[in-house]
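Let us work through a complete example step by step.
Step 1: write down the sequence.
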Amino acid sequence: MTDLPFRHAETDLPDAVESLVLDLLEWIGPDARPYIEVIEAWRTSCPRLPVWEEANARGYLTRIHSPGGAEVKVSEAGAAYLRTSRGRPTGSPQAAA
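Step 2: predict the structure and record it as tokens.
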């Protein structure tokens, strides 16, 4: 079995990771969430599902430091990617299937 290097190119991601990156952006929504909450829900040690890492590497997330603690917010690039990919702004409810 040959190990292939992982690249952060959007076209190289498996569909599952791509979908989960979009889910992460939707889950965070239009407002900031506490950093600890986001990390507990989305960070993984599985090298095949680098959702948090991929979203950060692409610049889709912004960390905000405030007296109340760190928060994570979807960046403008992340919101634009979500609009382009799913046709709705960050935090919009999904259409009923």
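Step 3: interpret the result. The domain at 13-86 is CATH 1.10.10.10 (Arc Repressor Mutant, subunit A).
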